[in-house]
Amino acid sequence: MRKPGPLLRIGRPLRYTHNRLYPIDTPRRRLIAKCMPDHGEARAETTGHRLLRGWYPVPVLHHHFRLLSHAVLVYERLLVGPDRGLLLDLLNIPDGGDHSALDAYMRELTTVYLRVFTETAELSPPSAVVGKLYHDRAAPGGRLDRYYAGRDLPLTDAEDGPRLSDLARTGLYINGRHYRLDWDATISWLRGAFGTPVWSAISQGDPTDVNLAVPLAWLDYDTAGRNAIVGEIANFSFYTAVLGGWLVPLLNPEAFAQHPATFDRVPANTPRVSSLLYADTLHIRFTDRLTHARRLALSRYWELFVRPLATRYFPGDTLAEALRPYLAMRIIGVFDLAQMPLDQRLYLLAKLALCMVPDFSPTRFFGLTESSCPTR
């Protein structure tokens, strides 16, 4: 007679942020236990999951309980494994490969988004909108303070070279064009940018390629709730175009241990950046590079989701103006520029300068075609 297997098997933990995920197998179920040291974040996650499950496909939350130092949430485990199960994996298909599954996925994703957003959209006061990723980071004591208060970052490797504060006087050249960038004024503007009513809708709030499963499901719910529509757009767009294929794998490689093809794609998603100091003025040149898969996902997202939303809620050029502070926060409020190598820091500063111009254009900024972008 064959000896029965163990009733409970716990796999090796996976780490994405400060939380740990433990795969659990029982005779009847495949589960994943999410261990969270922040009890407030765990409460937000359970509340967000409860709200989201009426609108989006999400895995079942079977149990949640509190230990002395951690909260533990036990979910149904989706079929996520080595290089499979996430939107990330569809984005990692090499150029020249078959992208039909990605195209179909983006059409399904945007169809669900558009239905939920049009059914739940309303003009909301700041108090009714999830503030974690934008308002709270710009508020006193938030990330902007923790990253930049009392610091004047260098713009070259020279000890006596120019610093951020000098840009208010000299400006900088980006790909041959002169831009003004007053860092202190930008920080001050961002502090007040999230205190007015915004169009919001029910969403997961942090739609990155590791928070979207294949088949379609949404993961990670501590920012779920009523989120600013432009915040959702800024998050997905900037993560797809810059963070997800390049900076996040470099700065947080542990999060991609199960998806090693991500690292194979990093060179193709890495912009070319060079700089020089001439007559006391910084000159930055960059060329964006993005794989075909990421360009396709970004194009479909804007064509099938952003464009219809803009027609309804952001007529004329109002989407570009509404998007600017949210995009600026994705540029400087996710990672601390001071902790980056100089080329990465200068690239993000160049992107910030492009975002701050009065004629800001999402079309130019993201390299979109006119047919996919609703403004300029």
Question: In summary, what is this structure?
Answer:
By secondary structure, this protein is α+β, with helices and mostly antiparallel strands. It is 41% helix and 18% strand. The chain has two domains: 9-76, Phosphorylase Kinase, domain 1, CATH 3.30.200.20; 87-366.
Helix content estimate: 40-55%
β-sheet strand percentage: 15-25%
Number of strands: 15
What ranges have pLDDT less than 50 throughout 5 or more consecutive residues?
Answer: none
Structural class: alpha+beta
Please tell me about this protein's structure.
A hairpin with a 4-residue loop joins strand 5 and strand 6 (71-76). The chain folds into 2 domains: 9-76, Phosphorylase Kinase, domain 1, CATH 3.30.200; 87-366. It has 376 residues and is an alpha+beta fold. It contains 13 helices and 15 strands. The chain has helices at 39-52, 87-91, 100-120, 135-138, 143-148, 167-170, 183-192, 229-251, 261-269, 292-313, 318-332, 342-356, 362-366, and strands spanning 9-10, 14-15, 20-25, 30-36, 61-66, 71-76, 122-124, 172-174, 177-179, 198-203, 212-213, 217-218, 225-228, 272-278, 281-287. Helix 8 (229-251) packs antiparallel against helix 10. Helices cover 41% and strands 18% of the residues. Strands 1, 2, 3, 4, 5 and 6 form a 6-stranded antiparallel β-sheet that branches. Strands 9-8-15-14 form a 4-stranded mixed β-sheet, with helices on one face.
